[in-house]
Write a structure and sequence with these properties.
By secondary structure, this protein is an alpha+beta fold. Among the domains are: 122 residues, Uridine Diphospho-n-acetylenolpyruvylglucosamine Reductase, domain 3, CATH 3.30.465.10; 81 residues, Alpha-Beta Plaits (2-Layer Sandwich); 81 residues, 2-Layer Sandwich (Alpha-Beta Plaits). Strands 14-11-13-12-16-17-15 form a 7-stranded antiparallel beta sheet, sandwiched between helices. The longest helix is centred in the last third of the chain and has 18 residues. It is globular. It binds flavin-adenine dinucleotide.
Length: 470
């Protein structure tokens, strides 16, 4: 189908002003935050050229667009904020980019039930602000809160600062409205608590726009706590701090925020900084005091030293700084396509695996040995949100020949090791183009079931093809 007739048909369906095939729009929405270096073997697939960008206003527009694309066998890539770091929102050749950015309404806030319904294209920051006006807040607070959308966060099952208290994004979803590949509109009943049968919500959580396009979601809204206390501790080495974290959770303490990690000292010849643990406790004044007291005793027993209030303040105030930088340098740039590429020229990768708590330190040792043998520098080790969520920030040393290709193989080994130890290769960013080749190894027979579901929910195979189930 040629681009002229496709654009004409979409304009007929959605109206003038809701469709564009301008070069500048195709460039702007022609990628996400996965750049060529981190993409490794998928780098060649970052240059797909979409035919048109379409901006639906409501679920009927989404439904009409999908039904049309199914009839014409044209791929559709749902697009939220374009901040995904795995290439999941990167278009394929001849695709329609379905940009949810104009579906950004607050549908309703139910203060009594503490739930809120939003259109899926709303920025997380705007959803949070809308709740703050009712003395409530959003339970998902990633670094990218100012730039990512609710639909994107659900579709990647993202993780944020308050995950220790409120869970990942998907844990907070109560109900959903979406359109399937052939345009059929489906809706789940937004009931908090238990349900029977299989949940419709889970079809769309973490499936990266391959089973349907989410138009609205009802999520839990959390009350602003009466009391809140933030503490931090420095540990002489990573392991002792990790053991303290493990003891905190074993004792049943439930911080809202838990963030731990160490870094290389810049120019320090491989020396590492002390590892720092940040904890936030919230609730009644008495429970916060008791929890802080107990967590402090545990940390001191594990050689922790209490950090200063100034360090804590800076940590919390700066938590969205990388998103503001990304917005300024890439999203607001006249040529986001070029800015994306240059921001990705930085030679590093970040891995976010989840493992049984009892195996995290063993896994870290294994990675340390493998990465040093391969000439890879670990800039940061960290644990975020749950003791199981373990991350590494790595870069190849300049002396290693064929750095990028060799790093790609090493990363695969590190991720396969996590799978072999009963873990998952990625806990918050999804799979996209970058990790699609490792999905089957992790899902096993679940992969064939997912592919059958895919054929049933998206019979023409138009929804974000070539990604997670390829
Ligand atoms: C500076 C920076 C910091 C980040 N920090 C974090 C962090 O702390 N935690 C974290 O988890 N991630 C983080 N990320 C990654 C990214 O912000 C998240 O993955 C986010 O959830 C993606 O949202 P988005 O709206 O940008 O989605 P997009 O990138 O537009 O899309 C992501 C996926 O969701 C699909 N999709 C989007 N909207 C819909 C919809 N309505 N229906 C169906 N499918 C849809 C897309 O097709 C794609 O597969 C960060 C990224 C950057 C650039």
């Amino acid at each position: 189908m040629n681009s002229y007739s496709l654009e004409r048909d979409l304009v007929e369906l959605l109206g003038r002003g809701a469709v564009s095939s301008d070069e500048s729009d195709l460039r702007r929405y022609g990628g996400d935050a996965l750049g060529t270096f981190r993409a490794f073997r998928a780098a060649g697939r970052l240059n797909g050229r979409a035919i048109a960008v379409a901006w639906p206003q409501n679920v009927e527009d989404i439904s009409k667009s999908l039904a049309y694309a199914s009839r014409q066998s044209v791929p559709v890539v749902p697009y939220g904020g374009g901040t995904g770091v795995m290439g999941a929102a990167t278009p394929l050749d001849s695709a329609i980019i379905l940009n949810l950015g104009r579906m950004d309404r607050v549908v309703r806030v139910d203060t009594e039930s503490r739930t809120a319904t939003f259109q899926s294209g709303i920025l997380l920051e705007d959803a949070h602000r809308a709740l703050m006006a009712h003395d409530l807040r959003l339970g998902h607070d990633p670094w990218s809160r100012p730039i990512a959308t609710l639909g994107g966060a659900i579709s990647t099952n993202g993780v944020g600062y308050t995950a220790s208290g409120h869970g990942a994004m998907g844990d907070q979803v109560l109900g959903m409205q979406a359109a399937l590949g052939d345009g059929e509109i489906v809706e789940s009943w937004a009931v908090p608590g238990a349900f029977f049968g299989s949940s419709l919500n889970h079809i769309f959580i973490g499936t990266e726009g391959t089973f349907g396009v989410i138009s609205e979601a009802t999520v839990a809204a959390f009350p602003i706590p009466i009391a809140r206390s933030m503490v931090c501790f420095d540990f002489p080495e990573f392991d002792s701090g990790y053991e303290a974290i493990s003891a905190i959770y074993t004792d049943g303490l439930q911080p809202t925020v838990m963030d731990y990690g160490d870094e290389l000292v810049p120019g320090g010849d491989g020396r590492r900084d002390t590892a720092t643990l940040y904890l936030v406790f919230e609730g009644s004044k008495e429970s916060v005091e008791a929890n802080v007291g107990e967590a402090t005793a545990i940390c001191l027993r594990h050689d922790g030293r209490r950090g200063s209030a100034a360090v804590i303040d800076r940590y919390w105030t700066d938590r969205h700084a990388s998103a503001h930088r990304y917005k300024e340098n890439v999203l607001d740039n006249e040529r986001p396509d070029l800015a994306r590429r240059s921001s990705s020229a930085y030679r590093m990768d970040y891995l976010h695996v989840a493992l049984p708590t009892g195996r995290v330190l063993e896994y870290r040792k294994k990675c340390e040995a493998l990465l040093s043998e391969e000439g890879v520098t670990v800039r940061e080790w960290s644990v975020w949100g749950r003791p199981e969520f373990f991350s590494l920030l790595i870069s190849p040393s300049d002396e290693v020949e064929g750095g990028g290709a060799r790093l790609a193989q090493t990363v695969d080994r590190v991720l396969r090791d996590a799978q072999a130890m009963g873990g998952t290769m990625e806990y918050c960013h999804g799979v996209g183009l970058k990790l699609a080749h490792l999905v089957e190894a992790e899902l096993g027979s679940g992969m064939a079931v997912a592919q059958r579901m895919k054929r049933s929910l998206d019979p023409a195979g138009i929804l974000n093809p070539g990604k997670i189930w390829s």
